[in-house]
Write a structure and sequence with these properties.
Layout: H1 2-14, E1 53-60, H2 67-75, E2 89-92, H3 99-107, E3 111-114, H4 123-127, H5 131-148, E4 158-159, H6 170-177, E5 182-183, E6 187-188, E7 199-201, E8 219-224, E9 227-228, E10 230-231, E11 237-238, H7 255-270, E12 277-281, H8 283-287, H9 290-303, E13 309-311, H10 314-321
Parallel strand pairs: 1-2, 1-12, 1-13, 2-3, 4-5, 5-8, 6-9
Antiparallel strand pairs: 7-8, 10-11
Helix pairs in contact: 5-6, 7-9
The chain binds 2-acetamido-2-deoxy-beta-D-glucopyranose (NAG) and zinc ion.
2-acetamido-2-deoxy-beta-D-glucopyranose (NAG) binds at residues 18-19, 21, 168-169, 213, 216-217.
Signal peptide: 1-16
Protein name: Chitin deacetylase 5
GO biological process, one term: carbohydrate metabolic process
Length: 323
């Protein structure tokens, strides 16, 4: 099924034809596990209190001999309340990456995902990226990652765009061609409370588009994991934990205030529809702000004692939402 869709899209792309425009979602036709309409309803019709609260910890950019120390310090030996190991997701770009260390992360049960080969700083490049550009950045990177980090090709399923700059349809078109599952680059500020659950692009998305262009074509079977924004103390939205800026965040040396700030954002999910809660950061943010790192460790210690909260990689979230 997926194969012939990918094949048709390849043919359409080769002939320079437009992709079909996505229609409004038809909830009768669009059913799990292959399809899900965009929205805030809990998959499977579960009640919130029966729904596991997933916490998604992600780190972006190159993995190297310096930041691996932070990853080991935070994650080695850490377990969820059910005694399973926690998992984080690493969105890795090629430049400056040490693949021996990527292999270590993978073997410790973490998820390895793609963040482009070049991570070039020209944001216009990403905004205007063609399908061929995205093949070179992501389809090629998947092969490169599997080879150099010695990871099974089909264990690499996720993409995050540099600067969260969406490319319209082209990234999703490439994901569909090579059968990759999901993108996690698309922030939402309109569907934060209740938060938006992951959904597919078979049909038109109702998600707001803070960093256009967002996809509007029907690209069956590709998933969007909306980045549900945090809200800072002045009511502004931040798509990543390190994108909330002073003075609207607690002082970066105040552990107690940062612990409460993280908790406030977490509770917006936990006491609502339990859409996955993201702690999306770059490693430097924790290693250069020891009080914030301590606050985050306290947060992880706290959730390790909650029987319905799980710090897992995205891959695990999918296994759940596909049921
Ligand atoms: C995405 O595809 C749709 C349907 O072909 C098209 O209308 C839209 O312009 C495309 N988006 C971009 C940014 O090219
Ligand atoms: Zn990056």
């Amino acid at each position: 099924m997926k194969l012939w869709v990918a094949f048709l899209m390849l043919v359409a792309a080769t002939l320079g034809q437009e992709l079909p425009l996505a229609d409004q979602c038809d909830a009768e036709a669009c059913r799990l596990p292959d399809c899900r309409c965009s929205g805030t309803n809990i998959p499977g019709g579960l009640r919130a209190r029966d729904t596991p609260q997933f916490v998604l910890l992600t780190f972006d950019d190159a993995v190297n001999v310096i930041n691996i120390e932070t990853y080991r310090r935070l994650l080695d030996g850490r377990r969820n309340s059910n005694q399973c190991q926690v998992g984080a997701t690493f969105f890795i770009n090629h430049e400056y990456t040490n693949y021996v260390l990527v292999n270590e992360l993978y073997n410790k049960g973490h998820e390895i995902a793609l963040h482009s080969i070049t991570h070039r700083t020209d944001q216009n490049f990403w905004r205007e990226a063609s399908v061929e550009d995205m093949r070179q950045e992501f389809a090629d990177q998947r092969i490169q990652m599997a080879h150099f980090a010695n990871i099974p090709y089909n264990q690499i399923q996720g993409v995050r765009m540099p600067f969260l700059q969406m490319t319209g349809n082209s990234t999703f078109q490439v994901m569909s061609e090579i059968d990759m599952t999901y993108d996690c680059s698309w922030p939402t500020i309109s569907h934060v409370s209740p938060g938006m659950w992951p959904y597919t692009l078979d049909y038109a998305s109702i998600q707001d588009c803070p960093i256009p262009p967002c996809p509007t074509a029907s690209i069956p079977g590709t998933w969007v994991l909306p980045m549900i924004s945090w809200i800072d103390q002045a009511g502004f939205f931040c798509s990543m934990a390190d994108a909330c800026f002073p003075p609207n965040t607690p002082d970066r040396t105040n552990e107690e205030a940062w612990f409460r700030f993280i908790l406030t954002n977490f509770e917006r999910h936990y006491f609502n529809n339990r859409a996955p809660f993201g702690f999306y950061v770059h490693e430097w943010f924790l290693s250069t702000n020891p009080a914030i790192e301590r606050a985050f460790i306290r947060f992880m210690d706290m959730i390790a004692n909650l029987h319905d909260v799980f710090l897992v990689s995205f891959f695990h979230t999918f296994t759940f939402s596909l049921k």
